[in-house]
Amino acid sequence: MTEKFLIEPCGALQGTVEISGAKNAALPVLAAALLTEQTCTLQSIPDLSDVHAMCALLESFGARTHFHANTLTVDAGGAEPLDASYELVGKLRASFLVMGSLLARFGRAKVPLPGGCAIGTRPVDLHLKGLAALGASIDHSHGFVSVSAKKLQGAKIYLDFPSVGATENIMLAAVLAEGQTVLENCASEPEIVDLANFLNTIGGKIRGAGTDTIKIEGVRRLEAREIRHSVIPDRIEAGTFMLAAAISRGDVTLANVMPDHVKPVTAKLKEVNISVEENDSSVRVFCKRDSKIIAADLKTMPYPGFPTDMQAQFMSLMATAAGTSVITETVFENRFMQVGELKRMGADIKIESRSAIIEGVNRLTGTQVAASDLRAGAALVLAALGAKGATEVSGVQHIDRGYEGFDVRLNKLGARIRRV
Ligand code: UD1
Question: Is there an atom of ligand 1 within 6 Å of 373 CB?
Fold first, then answer.
């Protein structure tokens, strides 16, 4: 049975919410745990369906995993390079990252083309170009990609686009290649830095993560005394709660945040008249009394630009801002899935090619809407918080992929959401 959220309008959200570890950091780290025979203890791992699906995939190769209270141990000592299952890989796109690890450790991997959120065609050409540059031969057949190499050789690789997943997959493979790999025009997201830190913890040699050039000195064997790693806080979950505070005209403090990682969201919120106070590891978002939220334009960009994963939530805020805003999506070609549903709630939005033009209306009205993907789903929940009348959001399984107890934590701040 699929679940729904029944959302009654609420007043200003208030209180403190603790931000979870980052899904998009945890998943590549889990793929990386396949590289080593040693047991890894991973902390701040969010309790999400995507994380459990990734654990199931690692187990399908013979790894052992144990999850308890946001700590995950992975023992891939007994893993083998078996074919990855279509059912498991189809559940999440990040599962494609096991390709780099299996190739590096065993010299081969066979993985189906990935699934994940329906937000565009999402090819993997950059992943495969990078692996080919390291010396892998690549074969496509029946929806599977097979890669193999007797030996991987470090190389200079220039990415046409700073793809997060391609950067990660190539890093995973290059760790055990012979010689140096230089990855240029690569992604610089905080999750890439976290993966590099984990790879260095297990015995890899990586420099430059967080910039557009990463250098990886291949090592023959991965050796480490003890493998313990705590993943970074989730900047998208944090951004989503920041928007929930703004939409409800509330006053919410987010604990366990890296304020630098949410800077693009902070800057936009300030631009539209919301106050944000940054501390060492927390952020407070609040509205000054009677202040009007004003429209602002934005364009999604790779980090440190405004994250595509926050675009839908920001649109929910702009739907009732004073004036016209233009939101341009440059990262994915089909990421305005929330627009039709927001319009059903009374929003005035037109799409022109890669831009959405939003005329702010006074208030949205509750109705039945469907979450098509993770972030679009979060955007609908946020829109419902400030709407007039009750909203029913179906497709909650998409939201559960990326937010740990989203309803429960919003309710602690004063929201009125029932899971049915
Ligand atoms: C990751 C995030 C996702 C986020 C996205 C962009 C994870 C698990 N997911 O996804 O939440 O929205 O980064 O910040 O970390 N592309 C190609 N060829 C490739 C690979 C990508 O053309 O081989 C294109 C994609 O179609 C897309 C763009 O590059 O248009 C960005 O994709 P990418 O950065 O790879 O995103 P993901 O790693 O899939």
Answer: no
